[in-house]
């Protein structure tokens, strides 16, 4: 990889200096196991799977009282439980043999979760989110509450900050991303033009903006699909070059061909119906030498099963995918698929972190930086 990859990696690890990452893989396993056992317990309690017979996912969705747009989630969960050895599936696609966790097993998993949280540098709010989502599974499935109520209990952003910023992997990735921006600013021959897609609560923005202090910046366009996040960012950030705009990446991107020095997309590009098409559009916006900076998940961990699927549901059910995920319920691309999509768009990958063998790789979140 490039010298920039090395500098970004060093900056990322400097941001988490003193943290012991060696137990990351075991900690992730414990968090995943807690959620899987919680889902298994809920299905065993509330559906006919407890009778030992084989049943189709649609029947399980009926038992759960799932809203029309969330019915697909029952099958998504059952597939995850089967992959974890907690359920079986017959040749007809029906599920049976669901494991019914005992109270002692759930209590032990809860204890391990607390140790895992501490090992991964997760704040208490993130652990509470996991437990709260398990408690609220019936209401979530019936569409009586939404994911935003989980991420913003009482309207406060602390839980969302815990998910997207205040944890070990995001501190590493955001610091590495800031080093990339620093390099871009030092190479620039004119004031920078930056676009951030789906900026959300500004979890990555908050680490990028300090790099731009006292540097020439023409604009930093902060975009999101929701006015809520734009209003929040206006109150949070105070930079004269910041601009704000509503933007839906499933539709057209801004028409600024070959003008941008950097396009940032942190934990949002997977929402595009066709990732390759999105990256082609992004490449067309970049000036020669311009970069796209992606922070992306490359594997769906079970710990997200009680939140992410509900955020992705459409009125017709699962999200509509037109790329390699078409016909599946996959949320994310693999590392190899992300790299292939960037390169197919005429972008050369310069940064791909964490490195192979780094314990942080077990968290399955990565920084990709590619240059036009």
Q: What is the subunit arrangement here?
A: single chain
| Helix percentage | 40-55%
CATH class category name of the largest domain? Alpha Beta
Number of helices: 15
Low-confidence stretches: none
> Can you list the strand order of the major beta sheet?
5-4-3-6-7-9-8
Number of separate strands: 9
What number is the mean pLDDT?
93
Biggest pleated sheet: 7 strands, mixed
N-to-C series of helices and strands:
HHHHEEHHHHHHEHEHEEHEHHEE
Task: Give the helix/strand class.
Answer: alpha/beta
Give the strand content: 5-15%
Protein name: Methyltransferase family protein
GO molecular function: methyltransferase activity
InterPro entries: Methyltransf_12, Methyltransf_Superfamily, SAM-dependent_MTases_sf
Domain Methyltransferase type: 195-292
Give an account of the 3D structure.
- The chain has 372 residues and is of the alpha/beta class.
- It has 2 domains: 3-18 and 168-298 and 333-371, 3-Layer(aba) Sandwich (Rossmann fold); 24-120 and 122-164, no CATH class.
- It is 44% helix and 15% strand.
- It contains 15 helices and 9 strands.
- The chain has helices at 3-15, 24-46, 57-64, 72-83, 103-119, 124-135, 137-141, 147-151, 158-164, 168-187, 205-208, 227-236, 275-285, 308-312, 335-344, and strands at 88-89, 95-96, 192-197, 217-224, 242-246, 260-266, 286-297, 348-353, 365-371.
- The strands form 2 sheets. It has a 7-stranded mixed β-sheet with strand order 5-4-3-6-7-9-8, sandwiched between helices. Strands 1-2 form a two-stranded antiparallel sheet.
- The longest helix has 23 residues, at 24-46.
- The radius of gyration is 21 Å and the shape is globular.
């Amino acid at each position: 990889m490039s010298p920039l990859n090395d500098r970004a990696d060093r900056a990322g690890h400097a941001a988490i200096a003193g943290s012991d990452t060696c137990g990351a893989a075991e900690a992730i396993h414990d968090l995943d196991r807690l959620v899987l056992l919680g889902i298994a317990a809920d299905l065993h309690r509330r559906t006919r799977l407890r009778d030992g017979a084989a049943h189709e996912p649609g029947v399980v969705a009926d038992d759960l009282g799932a809203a029309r747009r969330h019915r697909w989630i029952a099958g998504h969960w059952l597939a995850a439980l089967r992959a974890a050895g907690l359920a079986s599936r017959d040749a007809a696609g029906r599920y049976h043999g669901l494991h019914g966790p005992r109270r002692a097993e759930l209590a032990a998993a809860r204890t391990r979760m607390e140790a895992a949280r501490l090992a991964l540098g997760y704040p208490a709010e993130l652990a509470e989110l996991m437990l709260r989502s398990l408690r609220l599974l019936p209401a979530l499935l019936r569409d009586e509450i939404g994911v935003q109520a989980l991420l913003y209990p009482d309207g406060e952003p602390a839980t969302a900050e815990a998910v997207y910023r205040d944890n070990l992997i995001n501190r590493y990735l955001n610091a590495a991303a800031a080093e990339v921006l620093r390099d871009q600013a030092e190479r620039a021959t004119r004031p920078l033009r930056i676009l951030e897609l789906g900026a959300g609560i500004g979890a990555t923005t908050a680490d990028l903006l300090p790099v731009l202090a006292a540097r020439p910046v023409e604009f930093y366009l902060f975009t999101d699909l929701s006015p809520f996040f734009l209003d929040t960012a206006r109150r949070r950030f105070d930079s004269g070059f910041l601009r704000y705009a509503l933007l839906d990446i499933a539709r057209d991107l801004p028409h600024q061909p070959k003008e941008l020095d950097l396009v940032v997309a942190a934990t949002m590009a997977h929402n595009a119906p066709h990732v390759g098409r999105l990256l082609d559009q992004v490449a067309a916006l970049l000036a020669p030498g311009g970069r796209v900076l992606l922070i992306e998940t490359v594997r769906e961990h079970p710990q997200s099963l009680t939140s992410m699927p509900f955020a992705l549901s459409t009125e017709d059910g699962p999200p509509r995918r037109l790329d390699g995920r078409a016909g599946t319920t996959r949320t994310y691309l693999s590392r190899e698929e992300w790299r292939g999509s960037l390169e197919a768009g005429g972008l050369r990958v310069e940064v791909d972190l964490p490195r192979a063998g780094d314990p942080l790789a077990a968290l399955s979140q990565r920084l990709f930086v590619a240059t036009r």
